[in-house]
Amino acid sequence: MAKGDQTLAAKRTALKFVSGGMVTTCRDYLARVRAQDFIDEAVTNRAVASEYVMCDSLAMLRGAAVSSGDDPFATERGQVLARRLDVSSFRSSLGPRIDDIHRVLADFGPSVTATATEVSLESLDWRFRLRVVAVGDFDRDGTADWLVWLTDEAKDGNYRDYRALLIPNVSRPGLLAAR
């Protein structure tokens, strides 16, 4: 069995969907997502959803082509995310704080830190992190795209969001958008 197939079949913590259905493997999770069933928003269930980000990522990786475009940002992906990713292009806890002055994470001040692969905005009560986990041609347009994991969580509260995002054509100039 290939490693990807093992990941699809591996048992995980049970995740509940709005329809009432439960899944315990990536294979079952992806079938529910394709059927447009939604993850139940209960607090403990949202925490369990973090285990299933790998499933979305594996599905995207299986559909990716080898990128014919270079990733000129291999050592500064976190800085690119901080300076160029339009955070209004995807749903997050930052939504209420986004305006004409605050469109990229770097606009949110000195609590933003970046490494070669990730950017974080962290406070005493909140953690917002974007981490590049793979580079490929996910949309098959011949350019390098980034697969990014979002962690958006209250440290002491009950807000939790974990997702895989796609940032297409990272080498183009201007702001980048995630989907």
Textual characterization of the structure:
The structure is a single chain. A hairpin with a 3-residue loop joins strand 3 and strand 4. The strands form two sheets. This protein has a five-stranded antiparallel beta sheet. The longest helix is centred in the N-terminal third of the chain and has 11 residues. Helices cover 23% and strands 23% of the residues. Helix 2 packs across helix 4. The chain has 179 residues and is α+β, with helices and mostly antiparallel strands. The radius of gyration is 17 Å and the shape is globular. The protein has two domains: 61 residues, no CATH class; 91 residues, no CATH class. The model has no long low-confidence stretch (mean pLDDT 90). It is built from five helices and seven strands; from the N terminus they run αββααααβββββ.
